[in-house]
Amino acid sequence: MAKQMKKAATSRVPAPGTTARGFQVMAIHVTEKRGRRAFEALRADRPASNTFALAESLPKNLDPESAAKRILAHAFASDAMPTLVDDEASSFRSLGVETVPLTGTTIVKFRQQIRGIPVFASLVSVELDDDNELVSLNSSLAKPDLASYVASISPLDALKRIADLAGYGRQLPDGVPTLNLFLDHGGKWRLAYIVEDVRSRTKGKASPAQHQIPLVHDYVIDARSGALVAELPRTPALRHGTASAPDDLGNMQTFNIEMKDGKRVMRDARLNIETYDLRYRDPLDGTLPGKLVKHPWSPAAVSAHTHAAVVTTYLRKVLKRNNIDNMGGRVVSTVKCVVEQFERPPGSKVWLNALWDGKQMLYGQDLFNGRLRSMASSLSVVAHELFHGVTGGTARLIYLGESGALNESYSDIFGTLIANSKQPDIGKWHWQVGCGMAVRDMQNPTQDNQPKLMKDFVQLPLTLNHDLGGVHLNSGIHNYAAFNIMTANDGRKFIFTPKELAAMFYIALTQQLSRQSTFADSRRAVVLATRSLFRNLPQTQIDIRVAAVKAGFAAAGIR
Ligand SMILES: [Zn+2]
């Protein structure tokens, strides 16, 4: 049945919101009245549609991916869902199917394509129950207005341009340029080649005022003019990383090792964790990951190894995630790194940083009581940084501006959840994230000069000198919303358990967010995740939990 635009006026589903970045967003869930009605109307409309004309094409007779594809095609064509973007040039490419053990649902993600070209950062998440019927539908779609969809430079030209920018000279970086429709930060749509995960070979790009070294970037090259559109940093780095948290290096730890060529090495085969030592060399010299740590064990390596094990075990047990990449892949840490450019004072081996470089963990060290102490000694720092790896492999939130602040906040949320995971009473949790002087406080962001309300969002240039648009600054707003949700209570007890909180934020991040998501997108995502997690409870119980989430975001001014 063709969509009649005049029906939009009597729509059962409210018009979708349009975000500032030019995407139309819409989210509905079966636990809401309007969602239930819309999904029922869609089912009632099936006999009239070509998509579901045959019994064998009904969702329960298909695999989840085929079912989701048909449900989406039908929803776009049907009168029952008049508010989805109705664009005949659009098609949808599956990004894969994921079963979510935490909710017992299956989520199929799609990317919007126009004339076969993917729309960067677009996302449709179709959540299905056991019968492959809709649990929720969340879409973020665009209508790019390009004059031409034909590239005038070749993929090879784009790679050469990137080789030049990233310091490769005549060599070409690894990676395949893919055409995308990309909305630049000026709000202009571009036909662009994107090459992901290009490791930089230029030294000294970062300003000395920062302890940051973006090692890996995604490059966006205009496919018409060859101009650089964006250089998207993939290096979330900890700022002001001064460690003076309780020193755990003196504590005895038990960890898994392996025998290799008759020697004991720091490899945990069960969790697939490996820990390396760079012996105070510069990771920019191309020596990563360094030497696999052998017995006798250095205290820095013990900290990195045992903390990586705590985080990996949490991922597996609480989030049902199989390591950072969810495929059981290696979790690699390197201790004793010194980026010479930021060594303070020169020759001291002090490099105040810990970071996920897009592929592995790097740890520097500070000076504590006259002794070098690894940044790996703080569990909240390790968890924060490793979670950048989870984000990088899922929502892949661009590390600039609002999406960058959201990336930071999700790392703070899981840094907090993991560092407090041995304390079941949320009332006794610590809300400071980082090490030493509390670098960020989720409860009182303003204490560390972060804003905590949306109206105080700080607009900064998207440059290194301005913290890539204030990613460590504006994260305070989303952190505060998360704090409100984590501590939401009915006057007698907390509304959510730590495990439920972890599941809500994890599902929101990994299933409902995309590269340019905003705080408002996160609000929608956490609400959907909450509805799915508790969908089998009585409606009043669902409503209490959804209200707590909405109130948490509202208190930070995120709507
Ligand atoms: Zn970070």
TrEMBL record:
Give GO terms: molecular function aspect only: metal ion binding; metalloendopeptidase activity
State the signal peptide span: none
GO CC, sorted alphabetically, is:
extracellular region
State the active site: 385, 472 (proton donor)
So which domain of life are we looking at? Bacteria
For the biological process aspect of GO, one term held by this record is:
proteolysis
- Please state what the protein is called: Neutral metalloproteinase
- The scientific name of the source species is Bradyrhizobium erythrophlei
